[in-house]
Design a protein that fits this description.
With 117 residues, the protein is mostly helical. The protein has six helices and no strands. Keywords: Cell membrane, Membrane, Transmembrane, Transmembrane helix.
């Protein structure tokens, strides 16, 4: 049971990391030189939090790779698409087209078939 929680934790941390970096990108300036941009990154708590979440997700992901077949964890990680769409709608008020919903449905159907097969 713990390995499934770790897998979901890794996927969730990746979604959190993406969300934090997206939030940070709205407040950062990409004007000026590379040093200016890097200093903006280093002074943003959201950027630092996003990278920390990615790092923790990577550590947990390595555990998942040892606990599951590579093909299994790779396909299960597709659930991130659904989680990202939920964040896109709930946090960023993005509009998701019917075509994108259809694509996600096909992905999830494929994941279910993969897991059953």
């Amino acid at each position: 049971m713990i390995k499934y929680l770790m897998l979901f934790g890794s996927l969730s941390l990746t979604v959190v990391a993406n969300t934090l970096l997206k939030m940070a990108s709205k407040s950062l300036s990409f004007e000026g030189g590379i040093v200016s941009v890097l200093l903006g990154y280093l002074s943003s708590q959201l950027i630092i939090g996003g990278f920390a979440a990615y790092a923790l997700a990577a550590v947990v992901w390595v555990y998942c790779l040892s606990a599951f077949d590579l093909s299994y964890v790779t396909f299960v990680s597709s659930v991130q698409y659904i989680l990202i769409i939920a964040v896109s709608i709930l946090v960023f008020q993005e509009q998701i087209s019917m075509m994108k919903w259809s694509g996600c449905a096909f992905i999830m159907i494929g994941v279910i078939f993969w897991m059953k097969g």
